[in-house]
Design goal:
Organism: Xiashengella succiniciproducens
Structural class: mainly beta
Order of helices and strands: EEEEEEEEEEEEEEHHEHHEEEEEEEE
Number of domains: 2
Distance between the termini: 27 Å
CATH architecture of the largest domain: Alpha-Beta Complex
Helix content: under 10%
Low-confidence stretches: 1-24
CATH topology of the largest domain: paralog of FGE (formylglycine-generating enzyme)
Keywords: Signal
Mean pLDDT: 88
CATH superfamily of the largest domain: paralog of FGE (formylglycine-generating enzyme)
Strand order of the largest sheet: 1-10-11-14-23-15
Strand content: 25-35%
Radius of gyration: 25 Å
Shape: elongated
Biased composition (Basic and acidic residues): 23-32
Domain Sulfatase-modifying factor enzyme-like: 154-352
CATH class of the largest domain: Alpha Beta
Oligomer: single chain
Region (Disordered): 21-47
Amino acid sequence: MKIRLLLPFLLLGLIGIASCSKSSEKPKDKPVVEVPDDPDDPGPTGPSQTLIIRFGGDSYQNSSTLELGYRKDAILLILETEPGWTATASADWIKLASYEGEAGKMGLIAGFAKNDFIPRSGTITFKSGNKTHIMTIDQSGAPQLRLTIDGIQADFVLVEGGNFLMGDSDLPESRYRTSVNVSSFYMATTETTNALWEAVTGSLPYDDLEDFEGHMEYDRPNHPVSGVSWTLVNEIFFPELRRQTEINFRLPTEAEWEYAAGGGKYKEGFIYSGSNTLNDVAWNYRNCDDKQEVGQLMPNALGLYDMSGNVSEWCSDWYIAPYQMEDGVSDPTGPATGTHKITRGGDFSEQELFGLGTCYIRYRYPIVPGCYDGCWGNSGHPDEPECFRCDKTGFRIVLAF
């Protein structure tokens, strides 16, 4: 069954014109990505600004750029030129209506629909005689998105890009502290839950795992999914999520994860994600004995929950220690190959015994992508058994653009 994404856009009325139970079945409802209801968005009562486009003399320019927020808007465009000009919009979210003002001045009211998705661009092309002016419209993305699959919701926040110092020179595996530039992206506010995993894949991953015998994971829909290998996440969950939504969801890079955990553009400077007090933001050895429902403790400045504690989280990068990045690098993705993948954030069994502990936002830990590794540290002994290393490991979702 082909499932397509619904992206409902709220079209602007222009002035002067038209004013958790177990199931083996696949989700039956179509996935929806939309902006959560915003009762504080009344919409424009008139054009928010007036722009003049001149076609004569030394002031003529053949291009311009207009930057807009995500909410619906309207701009009054006055053209200083001879009669007979034309204007054409490149996208259906840009609506044009002729305008006749005082003293016979002619122009346009350009209306822009609310953006319910990621940032987008369009153009308005003006022609007058043998001259052309192209106005590029850059509209920012919605600050929040909501994914709904089979009635299960996952909220995302826009993490605006910026620069930060990645790593910690006091940690051998995190040396050396490096200046990193990160582009904007959307990140899920919580770790992926049992309910969302089941809604996407049709089942939960615990049935064949000895470490979860006796656990009632099907009765804990709002707990983070765990016991999932990097391989399972990337070969089962994300391909199916992309098939259903036709959107390129993925794991965060290690740089994206650390930038977001530290508050992004707000640069909180906390030891843990959102606080210097572990119990305020993280489920850990001192305040629980198992993973807990997501989103119950304090979030960080971006509105992200549980980036410290609860379950550790997969990143997309291969592990290498220390970092091998040039200062000022943009959007690093780690080494091209490796044997272990990165996990971040620590889990509910961790405590601050030595140093800052694994819930520290700069701490990084490697696990083989398939999760099964030598129980004795890969000693080389012929009798060394294999142990499952991911019983407390989950992940969260990123949407980049």
